[in-house]
Amino acid sequence: MSGATTPREGYFAPRAGRVLCIAHRGARSVAPENTILAAQRGLEEGADLWELDVQLTADGHLVVVHDDTLERTTDVASRPEYANRAPWRVCDFTLDEVRGLDAGGWYHAADPFGQVASGGVTADDLALFPGLRIPTLDEALAFTADHGWRVNVEIKDMTVNADGSPGSPTYPGDAAVVRAVLESIRAHGLTEQAILSSFRHDYLRHAAAMEPALALAALVEDVRPADPVALCRDLGVVAYHPGDDIVTEADVAALRAMGVAVNVWTVNEEADMRRFIDWGVSGLITDFPLLCWGILREKGLA
Ligand code: G3P
Ligand code: CA
User: Fold this and answer.
1) Is the pTM of this model over 0.70?
2) Helix crossing, 137-146 with 174-187: angle to 10°?
3) Is the torsion defined by CA of 29, 105, 75, 114 positive or negative?
4) How far lies 122's CA from each of 115, 172, 265, in Å?
5) Active site residue 188
6) Is-catalytic flag, 241?
7) Which CATH fold would you assign to the domain 9-67+135-298?
8) Domain ranges in the chain?
9) Which residues, including other chains, have CB under 8 Å from residue 149's CB and lie 6 or more apart?
10) With a cut of 50, which residues of the chain have pLDDT below it?
């Protein structure tokens, strides 16, 4: 994979000698995750790109939301009209229904990173959250393109829910999902500014066949692959996105020697950021981009 000749292979080449700061679901420590406001905060905090999660609605629209249910990050459970729709799966709601939900008001009471209690998120900030909407992928990509920014689009595995139940009976198939995501990325002129990742590696295989110019990343969690280099070669990806608890210093060295970028998630503690930087990672996916940016700047790596 070294000796890059295509945009996919060359995606990380202009960033050699730097470490990317990647805002996880936007700057989700200081704004409701996966909203345009969270993206805006990530941009303001110096992130090189933001990461977002994509799923399909019941009527086949791509929306930016992490969980396979709407309960945690919207007001769906308190809405009388949806009282009999539990567990409120994204794949059972239409785009119109999803767009009618409040995706920001939950943050204040949940205070997911203690930023309300600590004052990191102020009353003025909080006033902006109620009424935020779940973005469509198109809206998220339009924001990215309008700001000359970059994005890591993660396609969630829509064939199975977190509770083990099967996904929607109307699931159109892996190829159709990937095709729709690629069309949206292309429509916004972001093919060379985006990285596509997924835990469902079949999505990556489809993307590799459909769009040679798009950078792809293998997401892995929980169990370290026996041979991360072989995995990345097999998938044809230019980046490896491991959970911070399964990546090793030797993996980072081996992958980077092969020209594969290593972007670790989710790295929120300063000591961990410094350790992974010392290991030679190419990027840090973090809920605290401002902290990350500060360290990278101090080290001349931003
Ligand atoms: O892409 C890195 C990370 O976002 C993957 O895990 O659960 O936060 O989407 P998750
Ligand atoms: Ca994600």
Assistant:
1) yes
2) 30
3) positive
4) 8, 43, 27
5) no
6) no
7) TIM Barrel (3.20.20)
8) 9-67+135-298
9) 43, 49, 50, 143, 193
10) 1-3
